[in-house]
Amino acid sequence: MTGYQAIYQRYKQQILSGNLKPGEKVPAIRVLAADLGVAKKTVETAYNILIGEGYLVSKGARGTQVNPDLQLNIARVAISTPVEDSKLQQLIDLRDNPGFFRLGIPSLDEFPYKKWLLLSGKAIRAMRPEQMLTPPVMGHPPLREAIANYVNISRGLNCNASQICITSGYKHSIALILQALATRQDKVVFEDPGYFFGQKLLKRIVENLHYVPVDRQGLNIGYLLQHHQDTRFVITSPAHHSPLAVTLSLPRRQQLLDWAQNQRAWIIEDDYDGEFHYTKKVLPALKSQDAADRVIYVGTFSKTIMPAMRISYIVLPKALINRFHETAEIVETSLPLLPQQILSRFIAEGHFFKHLKKMRTLYQARRQMVLNALQQVYPTQFYVELTDGGMHIVAFLTSGSQDEQLAEIWQQHRLLVFPLSVWYAGNSKRYGLVIGYTNIKSEQEAIDALRLPYQQTIALLGG
Ligand SMILES: Cc1ncc(COP(=O)(O)O)c(C=O)c1O
Q1: Distance between CA atoms of 105 and 88, rounded to whole angstroms?
Q2: Residue 16 above 60 pLDDT?
Q3: Are residues 61 and 96 in the same domain?
Q4: CA-to-CA distance for 46 and 15, rounded, in angstroms?
Q5: Is there a single domain that holds both residue 267 and residue 369?
Q6: Distance between CA atoms of 389 and 266, rounded to whole angstroms?
Q7: Which of 91, 191, 199, 302 to mutate to test the pocket of ligand 1 (most atoms within 8 A of CB)?
Q8: Residue 12 confidence (pLDDT)
Q9: Residue 78 has what pLDDT?
Q10: How many domains does the chain have?
C-alpha cells in the first residue's frame, strides 16, 4: 500500500485501537507531508476520506482532530499473573488505589509545592547546553554530594559523594547491586516476612534464595548463623523492618556485622523509612557501625518526598565504586537530570531537613490518631506492639488467622489495609492487618473509616 491509502490505514488503525483518542489533534497537512516526505495532496486526500467516514473532523483554523463524538469499544488486554504470585500481586495492585490507610506513602497533602515550583524554575533557568547531553551514569554530582552530606549528618554514615550512586527505586537498586556483584550460585537471604516487591524480584532473579525469620528484635541472626552461614548477600531493613516495623537490636547488629566481616559477605541495608523514628533514642543506620565496609546502604526519597519522583540511592563501600561504575555504564542509561537538579537544590538549601522535621511531628501525631481510633472502635479484636518509628502499624488479630478474609472485607470499604500473613514466605506466620496512617487527617476521620466495615468485622472476629 502506498500514498494516501497507507496514511489513511495508519490513522484508521490508530483511532480504532484507541491510541488516538476522540478530540486529539492530528498534525497539519503541510507538517505531516514534510514529515513523511510526500506531497501535500497525498495527505489531504487521506484526511478527506477520514473526515468523510467520520473518523476525523476539520475545525477550520484550529486544525483537524479525531472526531470527539466517536464512540469506540476498545478491548482491554488482560494481563495474567502466575497463580503462586497472585496474593503478592493483589498487594501490589492495591497500592495504587485511592482510599484510607494506604501503606508506604508520605502525606500527600504536605508536599512542598511552592518550594518545588520555585526550585524547578531555578533549575531550568540554570541549565547549560552541556547539561542537555546524557547525564552522568552514577548521578548528578551536586545531588550525590547533597545526599552524602545528608546521610552523614542524619543517618550517621561517613561517606563521600564518590560512593553515591543514584537509582530509580528499590528494585533498581537491588537488581543493580546483584548484577554488579553476584554470581548465579551465590546464596541470598531475605527476611521472612519481607517486602512484597523484594520477594517478587528476588524470586525472579536469584536462584539460591533463602529466608530468615524476623522476631521482635529484628532479623534472627542466630538463625542466619546456624542455617545460612555461607550466605553471600543478606537483604534486610534494620531501622524499621518491613512490614513488622521492629528495629534490629544492638547486639544483633554487631553480630551481623561481625559475621559479614568474617565471611566476607555483603549486607544490603534497606533504610527506606529510617528518617521516621519517634523516640529520643538516636537510631543511626547499620552502615554507621560498619567499620569493615561490608554494608551496601540503600535509601530512597519515596517516603520523604514522593514515590512518583523515582529517586533513590546506593551508598557503596569504597572497594566497590569502580565495579559499580563499570556495571552501571554497561547496563544503565542514566536518570533524567532535571528532577535530580531540583532535588539537589532542595537538600542543599536546607528545605529537606525542615520538611523532615515537620513530617516526623505530623506522622507521630497521625499514628496516635489511628491507634486511638482502633482502640475505640475495636477494643478487643486487635492488639498493637508499638514500635519506635516507621510509617505504618501492624494490628495483630487477638485470636484466629482470618486476616486475609478481614482485609478483603475492609478493602471493599476502601480501607486499603494489607493482611500480614501474605508477607510470609514460610509457614510460621502471624496474623493481622498492616495499616498506613500518614494520610489520616484526624482521629474522627480514622474512627469513621474504621466503622465502615464494623458489622462484618464483628461477624468474622466476634464482639
Ligand atoms: C520495604 C521497602 N523498601 C524500599 C522501598 C522503596 O521503594 P522505592 O524507592 O522503589 O519507591 C519501599 C517502598 O514502599 C519499601 O516499602
Answers
A1: 18
A2: yes
A3: no
A4: 14
A5: no
A6: 26
A7: 302
A8: 94
A9: 46
A10: 3
